[in-house]
Design goal:
heterodimer, A: 209 residues, mainly alpha, Ferritin, 7 helices, B: mainly alpha, 37% helix, elongated
């Protein structure tokens, strides 16, 4: 067990650091898992253009995950790389929201999940835009600029599936019903959340978002 | 402006999304214009665009001004303007153009 503190964690007490670790890990895992699910459309999306679009969105999410894992690796400063954090864990140790645990599903499921997640993630990112923890605040600023397009894409598709009666709307409704119980799990309270709020690292508790 | 390429999409909104992904996702674009194929009016008649007669006089490079300027100076008795002394700086070079 190392006793040296990383430069990033300097000025943060141990309990807050543990909570920050939990926040970064759960956010990174969310982005990693949805990026992974969406990448499964590569080669089989409804049309070529959408294949490229969805693959590109998946790459964006994996890019966000990597950036978050990198901040986490620096906070930990125990020699563990971002890749090691991302891949060297047992399935049960992943901290992503249950909303993202439904598998790829059909296209309607993918759009429903993207819409619910992007909306929730947008709110979470908004709450971090004024974080007192500069590395996260600066990263969130960049991520939000990309996520704006993700919301546009998901909303565009959601509207189209909802507009057409029959198979498009039926499949969308079935997916939304399946995901509904887990829709708010992106805001599952974190261990030690009170410390994060107190230190100004997040503006509000997850449940309040 | 350069033709980026074509996309297939059910409507204009998705066409713009797809244009962004196909022709802008690698930061190779600063703006994109998307129009329906039916709204493009083209001109490809070689007689109108590549006429067979000599049209070099329509290009600015078709004139060599040096000899004409020298003749005009001689006629009016004006001397050739002096060359600038020293190497031009970036700003004066720009202003001279």
């Amino acid at each position: 067990m190392t006793t040296t503190r990383s430069a990033l964690a300097a000025g943060i007490d141990r309990a807050t650091e543990a909570a920050l670790d939990e926040l970064l890990l759960s956010m990174a895992d969310d982005e990693f898992v949805i990026g992974f699910s969406d990448s499964e459309w590569t080669g089989i999306a409804p049309i070529l253009e959408e294949d490229i679009a969805m693959s590109s969105l998946a790459q964006d999410e994996l890019g966000h995950a990597r950036a978050l894992y990198e901040v986490l690796a620096e906070v930990r400063s125990n020699g563990q790389t971002a890749d090691a954090i991302a891949y060297d864990r047992e399935p049960g140790d992943y901290r992503h929201a249950r909303l993202l645990d439904h598998g790829r599903g059909d296209w309607a499921m993918t759009i429903a999940r993207r819409y619910l997640y992007d909306t929730a993630d947008g709110t979470r990112l908004e709450g971090l835009a004024t974080s007192s923890f500069a590395p996260l605040r600066e990263l969130v600023d960049k991520i939000r600029r990309e996520e704006r397009y993700h919301v546009m894409h998901a909303t565009t598709w959601l509207e189209r599936l909802a507009r057409y009666p029959g198979e498009p709307r039926d499949r969308l409704l079935a997916s939304l019903l399946e995901l509904a119980p887990d829709a708010a799990t992106v805001f599952t309270p974190l261990d030690g959340e009170a410390q994060l709020v107190e230190g100004g690292l997040i503006t509000e508790p997850m449940a309040a978002l | 402006m350069r033709h980026g390429g074509s996309v297939m999409a059910p409507d204009a909104v998705l066409a713009v999304h797809y244009a962004r992904e196909l022709y802008g996702r690698r930061q190779e674009s600063v703006a994109l214009w998307v129009v329906r194929r039916a709204d493009i009016h083209d001109l490809a008649d070689p007689d109108l665009l590549q006429p067979p007669l000599d049209r070099s006089f329509k290009k600015p490079g078709g004139y060599v001004m040096r000899d004409k300027l020298a003749a005009a100076r001689e006629q009016s008795g004006q001397a050739k303007p002096k060359a600038r002394s020293g190497p031009p700086t970036r700003s004066t070079d720009k202003a001279a153009r």
